[in-house]
């Protein structure tokens, strides 16, 4: 059995419509522990950001107290996609407009990390900002436009997209709750 040199990091930042303890978000909050438990057992799952509470809803996102973060590491895009579009997670994704604002800018990004290294919130923010500025590149990409595992440097030039691997799976328009 060979060990992969790289694993897939993903970040998803969402803006709440109401406080986490509000009746409007009760179904979402009640589903966090069960969905996280499924993720933890999912084939290809490696790691997820969490505080002592067992989830990441109380980890601050700089600049906006209404933002919450979801960050995890997976074996590859196939493992992440398989988890996203099944069971209770899929059901929650279908209800995301009840809980989160619709945002026009990218709030989800993927990138490859050396196996065993865990991304930070600051790194995740940097990847999202890079994706917004340059579109999908090997440094920060989406499931719709993904790139092979490997090292990548930030783009410094104009928004020029290198050839990407075609996405073979459906992707939520904004990736909320990915």
What would a concise description of this structure say?
The chain is an alpha+beta fold.
Contiguous uncertain segments of 5+ residues: 160-178
**Strand-pairing-aware structural class:** alpha+beta
- Average pLDDT, rounded to a whole number, is 84
Q: Over the alpha carbons, how many angstroms does the gyration radius reach?
A: 16 Å
Widest β-sheet, arrangement of strands: 2-3-1-4
Q: Give the distance, in angstroms, between the N- and C-terminal Cα atoms.
A: 29 Å
Count of strand segments: 6
In percent, how much strand structure appears in the residues? 15-25%
What's the helix count? 5
Main beta-sheet annotation: 4 strands, antiparallel
Principal-axes geometry comes out as: globular
Order of helices and strands: EHEEHHHEHEE
Helix content: 25-40%
Features:
single chain; 178 residues; alpha+beta; 4-stranded antiparallel sheet; two-stranded antiparallel ribbon; 6 strands
């Amino acid at each position: 059995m060979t060990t992969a040199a790289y694993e897939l990091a993903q970040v998803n930042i969402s803006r709440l419509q109401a406080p986490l303890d509000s009746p409007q978000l009760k179904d979402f909050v009640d589903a966090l522990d069960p969905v996280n438990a499924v993720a933890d057992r999912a084939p290809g799952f490696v790691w997820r950001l969490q505080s002592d509470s067992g989830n990441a809803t109380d980890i601050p996102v700089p600049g906006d107290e209404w933002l919450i973060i979801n960050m995890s590491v997976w074996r590859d895009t196939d493992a992440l996609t398989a988890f996203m579009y099944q069971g209770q997670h899929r059901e929650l994704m279908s209800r995301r407009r009840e809980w989160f604002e619709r945002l026009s800018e990218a709030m989800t990004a993927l990138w490859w990390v050396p196996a065993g290294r865990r991304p930070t919130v600051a790194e995740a923010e940097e990847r999202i900002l890079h994706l917004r500025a340059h579109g999908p590149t090997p440094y920060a990409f989406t499931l719709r436009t993904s790139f092979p595992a490997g090292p990548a440097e930030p783009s410094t030039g104009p928004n020029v997209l290198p050839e990407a691997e075609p996405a073979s799976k459906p992707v939520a328009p904004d990736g909320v709750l990915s």
